[in-house]
Amino acid sequence: MWNDPVKVLGISGSPRPNANTAGLVKAVLAGCNVSTQFITLAGLRIEPCKSCLGCKDTNECVIDDDHSVLRKELLNANALVIGAPNYHNMINGLMHCFLERFYQFRHRERNLLAGKLGVAVGVGGSKAEPVIQQILAFFQFYRIESVGSVSAQGVARCFDCGYGEWCRSGAIIKAWGADQDLAKIRPSLDKQPDSLKEAFELGKRISARLKEKAHGDQCHQSWRRNPKCQV
Ligand SMILES: Cc1cc2nc3c(=O)[nH]c(=O)nc-3n(C[C@H](O)[C@H](O)[C@H](O)COP(=O)(O)O)c2cc1C
What we know:
By secondary structure, the protein is of the alpha/beta class. The protein is built from 7 helices and 8 strands; from the N terminus they run βαβαββαβββαβααα.
């Protein structure tokens, strides 16, 4: 049975609250025509799982930090849009800590996230694929139904460090070569209309799939009342 109102929860794991990951997650939410909520993990205190098994009886983590505040939102949501930046070809640490703590939801044959929908959002200075794959692996483990994924090119921090034009171990010379006009080559989401469109379309797909699932539940309930029912 779906909660009313149906809610899609978008979470950005970037420590930069209004940067590319947040922007792409919000673009997915913009395509959903159900109620949505956006949360940034930036500035939150989220510790890694301590493997203490303190959650095994209650399905509730015993660590007292900001994850406990997000727990209710996670459980209430019908769909999760999880976005993270690529740090060293991995999900960044903040999002990884956040996802590790999902461990509390899966004990004693219970899996409190099973059946929710999920979209994976990845951003990387050069590539986002490792992040997408890792988020999808979490979805699989927690039996979250993947609706799809979307990625975009973020901004290598060398664009802002002040040494980007001449630092030969940095990303700019490696990827674009020397003597570049940084303002001109600086990647941004608005230069990637295809990714933004794909994100928006994914939002629409979430809404459509939620509708299908709600209809499935309705049929199931009617059928239990009256097996001849064709709703
Ligand atoms: C510590 C660190 C490591 C990074 N490692 C990679 C990397 O291995 N590959 C990559 O494509 N981008 C890498 N980046 C670039 C980020 O993915 C890029 O800055 C992205 O835009 C961050 O997302 P945000 O704009 O939402 O903060 C790294 C950035 C940081 C700060």
